[in-house]
Design a protein that fits this description.
Length: 192
Amino acid sequence: MLHHLRGTLVEKTPTHVVVECGGLGYFIHISLTTFGQLPDGGEVKLLLHPVYREDAQLLFGFASELEREVFLMLNSVSGVGASTARVILSTLRPEEALSVVANGDSGSLQRIKGIGAKTAQRIVVDVRDKAVKLGASSPLSASGPSARHEALEALLVLGFARPAVEKALSALAAEAADANVEDLIKRALARL
């Protein structure tokens, strides 16, 4: 099983990179999250996950262990393949994806290209517990998924649009990691 690859970055695009290692060039599929964390050249290290199909052998690369874990979690859902998991991680950062799934927010998943209502619900139902466990060490869940979820629900009841509320709460995740529900609501209101 392949775990990681360290080599020279030869080509970098938003969907893939080519890394030369030991004279071989490896074509590795990446998300936009990983794309944004890679330098434009030089030596890089990518965590890997191979996908073997009848017609192809694919490598998916990740800049962080958390992103790989979220990818594997999403890929374990029936009907969600590696490409769909990559699209989700290109739209949401790993911490955001964990938060969305842990909070049961299938609406946010449905806004991602290629994710329908049934698939979004299946993701939430199948891996919600895993997302809560994985999220335990992520910055978003430091205030607890329930505190963030309660703040989200309260702001929605006040009439704010879900995308604006989610954006405000996501922005607060790093700076207000230990905030309780009331603090999250007050800080989010200042941003809305």
